Amino acid sequence: MMSLTRVLLVGMLLLLFPFRAIAWDWNTKVTVILNKQPLRAACELLEKNYGIHFSYSRDIVDLSAPVSIHAQNRPLKKVLDELFTPYDIEFTRIGDQVVLTIKKSMTRTISGYIEDGVTKERLIGATVFSPSRQAGTVTNQYGFFSLTIPKDTGSLVVSYVGYTPLRQPLPATGSPQLIVGLQPLSNLPEVVITESTQQKLQEQTQMSRINVNAAEVKAMPKLLGEADLIRALQALPGVSGGMEGASGLHVRGGSPDQNLILVDGTPVFSSSHLLGLFSIFNPDVMKTADLYKGAFPARFGGRLSSVIDISLKDGDMRKVHGDVAIGLLAAKFKVEGPIVKDKTSFVVSARRSYLDVLTNGANLTDGKGQTAYFSPLFYDVNVKVNHIFSPKDRIYASGYFGQDNFLIKAGRDNTNNTSGQTPYIENSRFQIGWGNGIGSLRWNHIYTPQLFSNLTLNYSQYYFFTDYRYKYEVPGTDEQRSQYGKYYSRMQNGSLKMDFDYRPNPKHAVKFGGEVTEHIFKPGISVYEDKSSDAVPMDTVTNKTSIPGWEFALYGEDDWEVLKSLHINLGMRAAAFLVERRAYVSLQPRLGVRWMLPYNWAVKGAYTYMNQYIHLLTNNGTALPTDLWVPSTQLVPPMLSRQATAGIAKTSNNRKYEISLEAYHKTMDNIIEYKENASFINSATTRWDTKVAIGKGWSYGMEFLLEKKKGTTRGWLGYTLAWSTRQFPEVNGGRAFPYKYDRRHDIELVVIQQLGKHWEVSASWEFNTGNALTLATSSYEGNTEVSPFFPGPDYYNRVDHIGERNGFRAGNSHRLDLSFTYTKQKKWWTKSWNFSFYNAYNQKNPFYYYMRKSADTQTRYLSRISIPIIPSVSYAIKF
């Protein structure tokens, strides 16, 4: 009996034990004593001693935070409140478990920088994305991001083209400032992340914007061994290069001065080297470039047609390395590395052409006493230093200087002639040169995780000059002529600008700021001397005056997610220009709209109003950089444009392809052009603005772009259908005429193919409708013999009757460029060879038209010069 009683008692105790384990409530008395141990230890203690089980997601709830608690025989709810409330962790009972979550009403802001994990270079446009919340953002021009998300977000996915995506875990509490380093794909095996992290084209509010990185520029076919950013931009729809082979930019019917070109936030006023064959931008130090053809954000102003925003490399923070290259045209080098490791870095690059060295001393002669000498030269230097003062402060200092010089000498010695002519000696020297110089100092500062600022102080200048000397003498007599002429023009610009980037929540991305700029114009100083024996000596200097102008601007813009399917970018720019006791004031609204359609298509629209207070006087009849920067004055008002754009866009589901179709209409008022028979030489007067005509222009068209962005085969197909027209009361009899770079059709096809580990092949094919030209319909001239090196009196006595302005249409052109690059990794360096063919099938495209005289009939006829196939080779070493 006793044994049965004991068995029943033990059985009851065993039955009661589990009931005790699950029969807890919020008033159950518990004891928890911990000293700086993780929250997880408290949960484990309660589970072990009291059978209280905890359920939570490790991706959402972080229990690694250290806690200290001394609770003896206290109610369970009070103990859990003390443990979890400081970390915004909510707890609730479901069955026999305590379920932990983060308070849903709480949010926090995660901010920081995304950088290259090897070099510490900040990455522009990197994507920071929360897959669980379907919210994300992209880094700004300085690699900074700010994202406000619920506190229960446990991780973010960070990605950038060409880098391995990374899942970044987040701490349970606080608003941390992160510095996330991504590894280049070439250094690590590919890692596949299933979440879609890159922002698709249809998800972007911004339209008419195309990003071009340095790798794409270097991969494209090269002319004379030089990769060129501007040439890469010309291969995009809506962008024209002007003449065959030139590096100019004409965007949606605009002129070159209507492009705002920024290098690290500093404007550049001339982008050409070697008479326009190359641009001044060295791709070795370029990080990325954004081209805006329309829908301009409010932070940009001062131009009508486009913005090219170029960011240069910051320099490697970890180790010193560089590269050296030599081609048919120029040699160059780049070196970058740390000054103080992980704190201060530098990058220096320089390049120089050596055509002047190759042609030095090489005189051309016709065997009849006539000689000529030609010496071209260009060079440029880039320097940049950046220093990290603290996690919230960083400073950049950068500079650029470049120059071109062309020297032509010609001579004729007629002292040994046997025809009975008076013996004489004739010599001339002509030099033309131009250059840019820019410098900037920028300070980045993080006020809060949501507010970022950039303060910029910059200076830039552009100058242009010509120098002409002529001497004629008859040996043994006093008869001689000596003439000297010089022309000089300069534009200077100093600016102070403050920009703020504010991200209050994922539905708003706000940018605002202001700037003040001083312009100093010297439109033209002309010097002329005539010391001929039969003339009164002349010595004149014209127009030494400078014209100052002050420009002010305030702006604000907000990229606003009104609905999941509706995004709006609202902006306003207020600007003023003070010159010659005259104030020009304008309000410039900006609007962009994106509406999502079924099947992930997006329809977009934009309207922009732009003012431009500086002008470029351009000669229609010359390809030399004789253009003069001049300000708006009492007689010449600022230019203004209104542009409306609409289009559709889509990124394929596998993210390999992007397609966009846009239509635009743009009007331009107060554009200027030289009056008939006026030029930069005779405009060097005290009032240059009396030599120009003021008119209007309009352009409209359609642009199509299909791009393949991933895989061993990349590239794009672009097509442009466009019209561009201008009209001036005092030009062409007041009749409207096509702009000189009006082109009806443009087709561009670019293919970049990776072949194995070592070879990369690229091809670029384009078709263009011919440019509009102005030609003489008749002329009256003398019969003097024409010299191959001197124009002769017949040139100066000839009077041309000009026909309809731009009434002649040049022939259509098409061209194929090819490039083959071989790269081999050595132990300590990487070597590469590039073989390029410009105009690979030797198409006779019109480069330059001119009038020639037939030796037999003495009649003049139109002739043209074409650029033949140009093969080139370059060799580079990267160490």
TrEMBL record:
Positions of transmembrane segments: none
Annotated ranges, domain TonB-dependent receptor plug: 218-303
Entry keyword annotation includes RNA-binding: no
UniProtKB keywords: Cell outer membrane, Membrane, Receptor
Keyword Membrane: yes
Pfam families tied to this protein: CarbopepD_reg_2 (PF13715), Plug (PF07715)
Domain of life: Bacteria
Compartmental location: Cell outer membrane
SUPFAM superfamilies: Carboxypeptidase regulatory domain-like (SSF49464), Porins (SSF56935)
Protein's name according to its UniProt entry: TonB-dependent receptor
